[in-house]
Amino acid sequence: MQNFTFCNPTKIIFGKGTIGALKREVPAGKKIMLIYGGGSIKRNGTYDEIMAALEGREVYEFSGVEANPTYETLMKCVEQVKAKGVDFLLAAGGGSVIDGTKFVAAAALFDGDPWKILQTYGSCVKEALPFASVLTLPATGSEMNSGSVITRVSIKAKLPFNSKLVFPMFSVLDPQKTYTLPANQVANGVVDAFVHVAEQYLTIPAHAKIQDRFAEGILATLIEEGPVALKDPENYEVRANIMWAATMALNGLIGAGVPQDWSTHMIGHELTALYGLDHAVTLAIVLPGILTLRKEHKREKLLQFAQRIWGIKSGNEDYQIAEGIQKTREFFQSMGIKTCLSDYNIDSAGIDKVVAQLKSHQMIKLGEHGDITPDVARQALELCL
Asked: Phi-psi region for residue 93, left (φ > 0), alpha (ψ -120 to 50) or beta?
């Protein structure tokens, strides 16, 4: 196991009817900016519960944060935060809203061009506004981590940043608020969480048995509960397990002391920026290609994955690995997500554009070994056609 320091300061408030906790958890005397997306929080009752909990507080609102939060929209929010003297942010929605709020928290206090936050992947962030979140779409784990991904539409760039200063103070997770999610968003959330685990688990052995077993438990839960959530959307226990699995998938716990990949995500970001594909869709496309291309580098963990997660124990090692990857692709498809570039009318010329974007964003040494160059990424994408 590698050396590590693990600290996650986010308080989680989980369960039915927990939005009322905002009354005691949001510090008194703060000017609050409620940040949300397209208005689903008003349709499912979340907005009313939030406002009831914050009754008597000074609350401003900013809506319209996109499914892939854009720099352009978020800078409008930054302007309002500064103009109104807001000193506490509250994100209500899924990972995109929370990611966007993290950027606003950092940008509102940033001295200089806020785009530098993305260009330096967060290393230049020195301070940020405090914020919290009310989660309505489990997927990204953003409610309990310090990462964010932002798209700048004008230059078709989608870049991540990370800073310990943008951990949420607390996050409220009420599984009931996921009942009305469209089927595609449920599927996207499950796949997103699955691939988050894969990026930390399907690398090389680190003799980290606790991390491995935790990761395998999350994967098994998503495989079991994901299809049920599509068939029985108001099954509280299923929704609760998916919500907690998505949070645990990317709160730093299973990644502590182990090598991590993240090449699937970086390649996927370029597909979203160029072609507007849902983030989880890009992951479902790219992961099988990466695993197939890198099967020798990942052999031991892919065998462990095939045997422990998919129960594939007969046949030689090559067969087990291939079957494990195929079962993964089939799972994504069972959630209603197509897994080939051609399904989205992207051909070899489209791959050329993705590779060019990777080069322009200096994504030239990806993977746990740092040896996934743009040319290797091209080979992986060709397996995804």
From this structure: left
pLDDT tens digits, one per residue of 215-240: 999 999 999 999 999 999 999 999 99
CB 129 within 8 A of CB 87: yes
Q: Alpha-carbon distance 193 to 231, whole Å?
A: 19
* 11-177 CATH choice from 3.10.350.10, 3.40.50.1970, 3.30.160.620, 1.10.287.1080: 3.40.50.1970
Asked if 262 and 283 count as a contact pair (C-beta separation under 8 A), the reply is: no
User: Which tokens hold the place of 29?
Assistant: 């005397």
17 residue type, one letter: G
**Residue pLDDT, tens place only, 29-83:** 999 999 999 889 999 999 999 999 999 999 999 999 999 999 999 999 999 999 9
Check residue 151 and give its pLDDT. Answer: 94
Convert the pLDDT of each residue in 344-377 to its tens digit.
999 999 999 999 999 999 999 999 999 999 999 9
CA distance 9 to 210: 21
Tokens in use for 54?
């914050």
CA angle 259, 263, 267 (to 5 degrees): 165
Write out the two tokens for 336: 């209603």
Residues 155, 157, 162, CA angle at the centre, nearest 5°? 140
Residue 117, pLDDT > 90, answer yes
The CATH code of the domain at 182-382 is: 1.20.1090.10
The DSSP result for 2-48, as a single string, is ---------EEEESTTGGGGHHHHSPTT-EEEEEESSSHHHHSSHHH
**Distance between CA atoms of 102 and 168, rounded to whole angstroms?**
8
Q: Are 179 and 234 in contact (CB under 8 A)?
A: yes
Beta bridge partners of 366: 372
